[in-house]
Specification:
five-stranded mixed sheet; 35% helix; five-stranded parallel sheet; Rossmann fold; sulfate adenylyltransferase (ATP) activity; Sulfate adenylyltransferase; alpha/beta; elongated; 398 residues; transferase; 13 helices; 24% strand; nucleotidyltransferase
Length: 398
């Protein structure tokens, strides 16, 4: 699409464009478009839309003085261009414009207005005071390509039972792998939705994606596991994140969503003297997806393997926990994690890309330290880290 002069223009960022594309593609079904004032207020109050759980309304209220002036001037039936950067990415036929309370909108999404919350801080800067509803069409290839990838894989494999996992993989560790293997025992296909945030914190998406693909290529059945990027827009934010995850997984064709028991979005509350989670809300309506909450896994230095913290008979003082932040700190400081935490193939790839050309002459260092065939072969930082881990695991002198 190219920029035209005939219409007024609303400028949207890529995060808003991605969200509009998800809805347009039917991945947030039954949401099928932007909500008007009455519908959005009903959804925000009741947390239900068309008999389906929905944490908050779907509206378009972009920030900026120019957008405020344009939206305020729009009339019903008017066509407005949607602009991302300097490029026209869609059109919207106006149904209604209406004022919103940005503070209340933030609270509906995150359950808090505290600006120390990173989601609140990022979203409040993107949110304007005027919303517009109406039919729209947008062009956004990433979403279209993801749908094609999943549909083609399901068709090629004939998969019926399809399990979804939402991963940050920041970084991918042994517990992730254990859960994937468990799901492969009972699934025709496992779809790993790898979160791709717009405000990156930690490893870049490309590093995480490539590391995950390398592990799948070498250690998992490639015809039964695929990685699909999931752009982590504001609609997946806050304490209601898992409901949106379940809706997206269902609309991609998954029959099950697997989440960790310690997932931050698995909100726990008391009702009628019973412990409930946010997934109790998914038991009514037409969501029709099985939700499995898996136990926390740890490495027990008595059992000498990965175990469930609920079933291991040894105390927590014998347990090594898979804390992603701690593992990431090691990598960010150039330290290769022990292989009981992260496979060497994963950590070596990550380090070689976090610290490119780290060694002055890796070729000489490689041949000075490690056994070799005697033939001169090109060595990379990645192969150096793998051999270094192998050397750490030599045990006769320890």
């Amino acid at each position: 699409m190219t920029f035209t002069k005939r219409n007024k223009a609303i400028h949207i960022d890529t995060e808003a464009l991605s969200s509009l594309a998800l809805v347009q593609a039917g991945l947030i079904h039954p949401v099928d478009g932007l909500m008007n004032k009455q519908t959005s207020q009903e959804v925000d109050k009741n947390k239900v839309y068309k008999d389906m759980p929905l944490p908050f309304s779907f509206i378009l209220a972009p920030s900026g003085k120019r957008n405020f002036e344009v939206i305020s001037s729009l009339k019903a039936g008017e066509i407005v261009d949607l602009i991302n950067g300097e490029r026209k990415v869609g059109e919207l036929t106006v149904e209604e414009t209406f004022e919103i309370d940005p503070e209340q909108r933030i609270f509906n999404i995150f359950g808090t207005n505290d600006t120390l919350h990173p989601g609140v801080k990022n979203t409040i800067n993107r949110l304007g005071k005027m919303a517009v509803s109406g039919k729209y069409i947008v062009k956004y290839l990433p979403v279209e390509d993801n749908i094609k990838k999943v549909k083609n894989t399901i068709k090629e494999t004939g998969a019926k039972k399809i399990t979804a996992m939402m991963l940050a993989a920041n970084p991918f560790n042994r517990v992730h792998e254990r859960i994937i293997r468990q799901k492969l025992n009972h699934s025709d296909l496992v779809i790993l939705f790898l979160r791709k945030p717009f405000n990156n914190d930690g490893l870049s998406y490309n590093i995480r994606s490539k590391a995950l693909e390398k592990l799948i290529d070498k250690f998992l059945p490639k015809n039964k596991v695929i990685v699909v990027p999931l752009e982590n827009t504001y609609i997946f934010a806050g304490y209601n994140e898992l409901i949106l995850d379940a809706i997206v997984a269902k609309n991609y064709g998954c029959s099950e969503l697997t989440v960790g028991k310690n997932h931050g979005g698995l909100s726990v509350y008391y009702s009628d003297n019973e412990i409930n989670t946010i997934f109790n809300e998914c038991e009514y309506g037409n969501l029709s997806i099985n939700i499995e909450v898996v136990e926390e896994y740890v490495y027990c230095n008595i059992c000498k393997t990965l175990v469930s913290s609920e079933t291991c008979p040894h105390g927590s003082h014998h347990h090594i926990k898979y804390n992603s932040n701690a593992i990431l700190k090691l990598l960010e400081n150039g330290i290769i994690p022990p292989t009981i935490l992260v496979r060497k193939e994963v950590s070596s790839y990550i380090l070689s890309h976090l610290f490119p050309n780290r060694f002055e002459n890796v070729q000489n260092l490689y041949y000075d330290l490690f056994p070799n065939s005697g033939l001169l072969e090109d060595q990379t930082d990645e192969s150096f880290y793998i051999e270094l881990i192998n050397l750490y695991q030599t045990s006769s002198l320890t």
